[in-house]
Specification:
The complex is a heterodimer of chains A (about 325) and B (about 325). With about 325 residues, chain A is an all-alpha fold. Chain A contains 14 helices and 2 strands. Chain A has a two-stranded antiparallel ribbon with strand order 1-2. In chain A, strand 1 and strand 2 (about 170) form a beta hairpin. The longest helix of chain A has 27 residues, at about 215-240. In chain B, helix 7 (about 200-210) crosses helix 8. Chain B has about 325 residues and is of the alpha/beta class. Chain B folds into 2 domains: about 30-135 and about 270-300, Rossmann fold (3-Layer(aba) Sandwich); about 135-270, Rossmann fold, CATH 3.40.50. Chain B has helices spanning about 1-25, 45-60, 70-85, 100-110, 135-150, 170-180, 200-210, 230-235, 250-260, 270-285; strands at about 30-35, 60-65, 90-95, 115, 130-135, 155-160, 185-195, 220-225, 245-250, 265, 295-300, 305. Classes of the chains: A mainly alpha (about 325), B alpha/beta (about 325).
Chain lengths: ~325, ~325
């Protein structure tokens, strides 16, 4: 988007303002839908229902936060589903054999490791993110099938479901984890050098390199964070189902990318705020919820979701184009 | 040229010798079976695979189980690979009864017998299978219907959770359920959504049903599979004991839920005997006693489980 000019701090700042302006459309759509559904869909506007929606979309939200970081650098990660499945299977296996804290730690470390590997291939070897993460996705799934004979891992104590289904007061625990992840992502982008560098690298890699930024390190750290968040989501998934299922989570990468993109973040990189990922996730979430409450036939639901993605992204892109012409 | 020919002849002779020696050993055992399952990571299959492997081992049969990873093209290529390996029998649990038909014909053309296990293959267009070992999903649906009547009586509002749309289990279980409910016109299906045999989706749909139908507005939620059990537990936790839950299949978590009282009952499609029966039928076939195998379907019993008998019967899988 901004490749024609050298990237500087002011460039980033203007990029941030730019995206927030163009994303007002989404806030408006979200607010209108929320009001519209509340008025027309029975049982929509109750806290019990909102709590359910928050709880079930938290997993994708956690993944979307990591996805946002990678999209801002101009890439994305197709391996988040495989990493999530791996994390839930490994956590389940270690919890059954050894202990709960160890299971969580090992799963998080493995997820981060896959992220680092993604970053290494993309940054150091220069393989395109699509190819890299497609390959690691297949690779991780393959190892997972070998390790488990493609069979689920049972025996996680039922108390573990607190993590996926439990509540503290009115708030679902997965949502608290989601909020924490979103807050961390926001803080990274807002306050840390890494965050600022992520925008610059996403805006223009060459300029970033010339400005003395260690581009490889930025990419490595970003993909490591993406892998870490996917592993966190995998553990929450285990908390929801209580079985480590090697073939689960296959729809995560595309759903998370859709959430971020619906939130108004262009795939071209350089711009994007964490609330876009949060809002995009919740937007898709309340639509699915409203369709269920309205009793819309399951045959129609995917079609509606597809149309929503096109409309939301279409409006956003059109607005962007108008601003560019001006 | 001459050496080449001689080499070819030698190689041919060696192959023949090997085939012959292998042939002698094969008289009773040492048979090879290739078993394609559309997706082995579905929890349901773990005990089917276990029992099939155990039964095969006991009878000196080399059993090679491969997963189709839920993808029809992968399933077809696995069966083609079995044909290329010249196994003695191919067992299939396809995700689509019609999509697998062309490759069944390929196997038949290569003189390899095919047996359908757990999920059906479409034989109406002339594809040949020895038999289908599994359950009658239509009867499964009927038994779920009987459970509904037992749970709510002659009048009631029911919400229904479907499996993956278009799979034979989803279609036939629904047809069976509707068949039973025809005799009970007071029972009404007010909602239908697909959870794709997925735990998270089943929970989400259950929650939405409970939101839409407040206390007393709905009598039961019926799930075609066992995935809704988390939803049943969620309902009890949030005080919705007015809704009765009926599941399909009998894993450990459903058994625990029936004992706790959060699930009313389920129909047990036990995968383990399907795995062992398939291998036993194969042994009969290899021994030339193919006429003793029930055809076209070798159905396994489908017991119904409620609080009354849950103590006596072990969970079908997941312990």
């Amino acid at each position: 988007m901004t490749t024609s000019q050298p990237a500087t701090q002011t460039q980033t700042a203007s990029g941030g303002r730019w995206s927030s302006l163009s994303a007002y459309a989404l806030v408006l759509i979200f607010a209108l839908l929320l009001i519209g559904f509340s008025l027309t869909v029975p049982h929509f506007a109750t806290w019990a229902n909102f709590a359910n929606v928050l709880q079930r979309n938290s997993i994708i939200g956690i993944v979307a936060c990591g996805m946002l970081l990678m999209i801002v650098t101009g890439g994305f990660d197709l391996s988040v589903g495989a990493v999530g499945a791996m994390s839930s299977v490994v956590a389940a296996a270690v919890i059954v054999q050894y202990s709960m804290p160890l299971g969580i730690v090992v799963a998080l470390m493995l997820g981060t490791l896959v992220g680092v590997a993604n970053g290494f291939f993309i940054a150091k070897l220069g393989i395109n993110p699509f190819v890299t993460t497609l390959a690691t996705q297949v690779l991780v799934t393959g190892f997972l099938f070998v390790g488990t004979s493609a069979q689920p891992v049972y025996g996680v104590p039922e108390s573990f479901t607190v993590l996926g289904l439990g509540r503290i007061g009115p708030l679902p625990i997965p949502t608290i984890i989601f909020a924490a992840v979103a807050l961390i992502t926001w803080a990274i982008l807002r306050f840390t050098t890494l965050g600022h560098n992520i925008y610059i690298v996403g805006g223009n890699k060459v300029a970033a390199r010339l400005a003395g930024i260690n581009v490889d390190r930025v990419l490595l750290l970003t993909y490591a964070l993406g892998g870490f968040f996917a592993a966190v989501a995998g553990i929450v998934l285990l908390g929801q189902t209580n079985i480590g299922q090697p073939a689960s989570a296959t729809d995560w990468p595309l759903t998370a990318i859709a959430a971020v993109v619906v939130g108004g973040v262009p795939l071209s990189g350089g711009v994007g705020q964490v609330w876009s990922a949060v809002l995009g996730t919740l937007l898709l979430g309340i639509i699915a919820n409203a369709l269920n409450l309205l009793g819309v036939s399951p045959f129609w639901q995917p079609a509606v979701t597809g149309a929503v993605i096109l409309v939301a992204v279409g409006l956003d892109s059109y607005q962007r184009k108008q601003r560019e012409l001006r | 040229m001459k050496t080449l020919t001689r080499r070819t002849v030698l190689a041919g002779a060696a192959t023949l010798a090997m085939l012959a020696s292998a042939g002698f050993g094969q008289a009773a055992d040492g048979k090879r079976i290739g078993f394609m399952i559309w997706n082995t990571s579905v929890p349901f299959y773990s005990n089917l695979i276990k029992l099939a492997n155990e039964t095969a081992k006991k009878n000196d049969i080399a059993l090679d189980i491969q997963s189709g990873n839920g993808d029809l093209a992968t399933q077809i290529s696995i069966v083609q690979q079995f044909i290329a390996q010249q196994v003695d029998m191919i067992m299939i649990a396809p995700s689509d009864p019609k999509g697998i038909v062309p490759v069944i014909r390929e196997a038949t053309a290569a003189n390899i017998p095919v047996m359908a296990v757990n999920t059906k293959a479409d034989t109406s267009t002339g594809a040949k299978v020895i038999t289908y070992v599994g359950v009658d999903d239509f009867v499964f649906g009927q038994r779920q219907g009987d459970l509904i009547v037992k749970a709510v009586g002659e009048n009631g509002k029911i919400a229904y959770i479907l499996g993956k749309l278009g799979t034979s289990a989803q279609l036939e279980r629904e047809a069976g359920l509707m068949d039973t409910l025809k005799k009970h016109p007071g029972i009404q299906i007010v909602e239908k959504q697909a959870a794709d045999w997925d735990n998270s989706k089943a929970l989400a749909i259950t929650q939405d049903y409970l939101s839409k139908y407040p206390q007393g507005a709905i009598d039961a939620i019926v799930d075609q599979g066992p995935e809704g059990v988390n939803g049943a537990n969620f309902a009890t936790q949030s005080g919705r004991t007015d809704v009765k839950f009926i599941m399909g299949d009998y894993p450990a978590d459903v058994r625990n839920a029936i004992i706790k009282g959060t699930v009313y009952g389920t129909v047990d499609q036990d995968p383990a005997p399907q795995g062992s029966t398939a291998i036993e039928d194969a042994i009969l076939y290899f021994a030339g006693k193919g006429d003793q195998i029930p055809t076209p379907n070798h159905y396994i019993d489908l017991p119904t489980l409620t609080k009354d008998n849950v103590d006596q019967i072990k969970a079908a899988w997941g312990d």
